[in-house]
């Protein structure tokens, strides 16, 4: 399998932002969005990956970048998005910035 060149850009908006991923040589894009609840917390609320990029590791690349950005910006992440939550469960090394939801009883 050939390594893909995944390019990720960040777009900040008034109440949140998003990371947008493209892959050299492939159509489509992927995005991971967040809402800000102030200066200290971002709610990761949505991930979308074009069918042409599914299974290529683009979603994981977005999640990795989201964690890197949170560390660099000194904020915490709350995973409302099911994809990001499931991925964060597989990466306990992210829990320094990811606030894992409490299990429902």
UniProtKB/TrEMBL annotation:
Pfam families: Acetyltransf_CG. InterPro entries: Acyl_CoA_acyltransferase (IPR016181), GNAT_YJDJ (IPR031165). Residues 11-99 form the N-acetyltransferase domain. This is N-acetyltransferase. It comes from Algimonas ampicilliniresistens.
């Amino acid at each position: 399998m050939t390594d893909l060149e995944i390019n990720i850009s960040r777009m900040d908006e008034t109440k949140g932002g998003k990371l947008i991923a493209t892959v050299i040589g492939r159509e489509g894009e992927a995005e991971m969005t967040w809402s800000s609840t102030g200066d200290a917390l971002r709610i990761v609320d949505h991930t979308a990956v074009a069918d042409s990029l599914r299974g290529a590791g683009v979603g994981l690349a977005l999640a990795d970048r989201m964690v890197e950005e949170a560390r660099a910006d000194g904020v915490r992440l709350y995973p409302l998005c099911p994809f990001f939550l499931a991925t964060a469960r597989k990466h306990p090394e992210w829990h320094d910035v990811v606030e894992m939801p409490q299990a429902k009883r």
